[in-house]
Write a structure and sequence with these properties.
- The protein is an alpha+beta fold.
- 14% of the residues lie in helices and 33% in strands.
- Strands 1-2-13-4-9-10-11 form a 7-stranded antiparallel β-sheet, with no helix packed on it.
- The longest helix has 18 residues.
């Protein structure tokens, strides 16, 4: 009974914790508690709306979606480093791709385990390092388009936007590997900043991290 109870949970649970402190009797099917159940449903829906969560986001969960040598993270989500296999995810070259809108307003595109942060803000696209160093493009004429970021384990990087190189450089260190922290899309984990690191003011479509080979990415 206990194994079944904790392994297979119903979508809704309601308990009278005074009469049933161990929460064994689920009251969701009891008509006598229908008004309480509806009130709690309304409160939950209100809170999810406040947080910007949808039923689909909850069903998808918080882990990245892996596919061979790449993974994708949806906008406004993040995944902790413990979600990744460090032996499997060991890139010599890291690619980050996405389609961006509202580059003029923008904000943070992604945070990669506190190794670096990509941003698109004020019609510029760039790279921000933990020490505050910034590599930034010139003013871009387009407000939306395809982003391609390439970073080698040797530290060489370049950022392309709409198939044109807009910034490049040499970091002289390996920032491709997993460190403690989060990888995120369109936000910083646990904080809200302004400017180039604000929550992304636009759409980030199909943000994908790919290891070593882009040939299989559409």
């Amino acid at each position: 009974f206990l194994l079944n109870r904790y392994s297979y949970r119903p979508p809704e649970e309601l308990f009278n914790t005074k009469k049933d402190p161990k929460e064994f009797v689920n009251l969701t099917e009891n008509r006598n508690y229908e008004s309480q159940l509806n009130r709690l449903r309304t409160l939950l829906e209100k809170e999810l709306t406040r947080q910007g969560e949808t039923d689909q986001m909850i069903m998808d969960g918080t882990l990245p979606h892996f596919n061979d040598n790449s993974y994708a993270i949806q906008q406004n989500k993040g995944a902790v480093e413990m979600s990744f296999n460090r032996k499997k995810w060991n890139p010599d070259t890291l690619y980050i791709t996405a389609y961006l809108t509202s580059v003029d307003k923008g904000g943070i595109v992604c945070d990669y385990f506190n190794n670096f942060r990509l941003f698109a803000y004020g019609n510029r696209i760039g790279l921000l390092l933990p020490d505050g160093q910034v590599y930034e493009s010139h003013l871009l004429p387009e407000k939306q388009g395809q982003l391609l970021f390439k970073l080698t384990s040797g530290g060489e990087f370049e950022i392309n936007f709409n198939h044109k190189k807009v910034v490049s450089g040499a970091l002289n260190k390996d920032l491709t590997k997993i460190k403690n922290g989060y990888v995120t899309c369109g936000k910083l984990q646990g904080m809200v900043l302004t400017g180039r690191l604000q929550p992304y003011q636009g759409k980030i479509l199909d943000l994908r991290f790919t290891m070593n080979d882009l040939s299989g990415v559409q």
